[in-house]
Amino acid sequence: MNAYTSNVATGAEGAQAFPIPDNVYAETVTEVRHYTDRLFRFRTTRPASFRFRSGEFVMIGLPNAERPVFRAYSVASPAWDDELEFFSIKVPGGPLTEYLQKVKVGDTILMRKKPTGTLVIDALLPGKRLYLLSTGTGVAPFASLIRDPEVYEKFEEVILVQTCREVAELAYARELYDDVVNHEFLGELAAGKLRLYDSATREPHPRQGRITDLIDSGKLFVDLGVPPFDPSVDRAMICGSMAMIKDTKDRLERFGLVEGANNAPNTFVVERAFVG
Ligand code: A2P
């Protein structure tokens, strides 16, 4: 155990202090931003020794119990960033997010030391067009990837797709897209390459419907002005709920794309968006 302890929002009056376990980094929250009553992002300091590949996830917890609850969170910030960013759902009564949603600047976040994950460029064969297909907080690993210069070196076109229930939930990815295209150095790399295609399912929206339905109707391709998925040029990453992954994977496989992994790169990869 480390010598020091930390107070953090526990949702209860008079937060209790617990020792920080040895095998984790204890980082400080630098920014918290609530988008809706279901979604928020937070940023933390980054340990100097922490290395990860854009698209990977880490286990996050709070020092609010002797044995803290950890949940997998995709790192939403790019590998070059001095800070770490995470995008989270708020699950009422969730063992971690019930407390995590109350963190404030200056609070301590625990992070296990080893990042991992399949949504990495190395798990895909070279291609021309990269689809990043997400629902809800599944956009987080892609927030990292679209801020990574390597993506623009490897692909001619990068299409960030996100479906959410409500229009307000699309704000995080919209801002991200604007930040990238207006960024002094990423903007130049992403110019003419990065595209955002978002849709809402439970509110009126110009592109209403689930990503799966937009693929089935062909509206996705018509709107983007691109041919349907083609395994010779198109690559994809999927991140969403178990059901969304299964349904989206089915569509890609129908077009002849094949699931890959770190040790067996292919034309698409998947990862579950984590909640809790
Ligand atoms: P819907 O509103 O029709 O359920 P959630 O917030 O529940 O994770 O959902 C995020 C978005 O993912 C919602 O727009 C939801 O649509 C959509 N979604 C849920 N299940 C699937 C699925 N199996 N395939 C594609 N999209 C899905």
TrEMBL record:
The keyword Membrane does not apply. GO terms for molecular function: ferredoxin-NADP+ reductase activity; nucleotide binding. One of its GO terms (biological process) is cellular response to oxidative stress. It comes from Pleomorphomonas carboxyditropha. Its cofactor is FAD. This is ferredoxin--NADP(+) reductase. It is an enzyme of class 1 (oxidoreductase). Keywords: FAD, Flavoprotein, NADP, Nucleotide-binding, Oxidoreductase. The keyword DNA-binding does not apply. It comes from the Bacteria.
